[in-house]
Amino acid sequence: MKVFILAALVAVVASQSYPKPQYTTPAYPAPAYPAPAYKAPAYPAPAYPSPSYKTPEYAPMPYSFNWAVKDDPSYNDYAHQETADDKGYVTGSYRTLLPDGRTQIVNYKADDYTGYVADVKYDGEAKEYKPTYKPAGYPSPAYPSPSYPSPAYPSPAYPSPAYSAPKYQSPSYPSPAYPSPKYPTKY
Q1: Handedness of CA 146, 149, 150, 151 (dihedral sign)
Q2: Distance between CA atoms of 52 and 168, rounded to whole angstroms?
Q3: What is the pTM of this model?
Q4: Residue 124 pLDDT > 80
């Protein structure tokens, strides 16, 4: 409660206006600048003709389409169907096979009043995805190996470097002088 009262008191004090200092007009006069020595050019305002055509108003055009893909080896299974009327009301649905084996089905409606409204459903049970495709090994080429001999490269004219491993002294450790442990006897 004390914190609340203290915060309220700080807010009241901070909201009060402090007296502002009174500034007097400066003792020196404002500088007078001479008029420019050149005449500013006068450009006419650009005059563009108004467009001679009227902006067309488009009315919704009725349409209907559908398509589907079903390719079992590549696990592609999806489809889309949509229809629209001349008032801009669109209905449709699409489905796709998900990697977990379920089919996602989306039914939707769209118009200028309610916007896009979708109903999403899933068909089937989710299961672990295990691909069955196993790539085969590459076969040997059908063309014969080359008949020309492999090139013989001359040995280099410079001597090969001689590497010698440094000789390190093996470390020696003192033997431990620890007493052997004493275990208690049975009681």
Answers
A1: negative
A2: 97
A3: 0.40
A4: yes
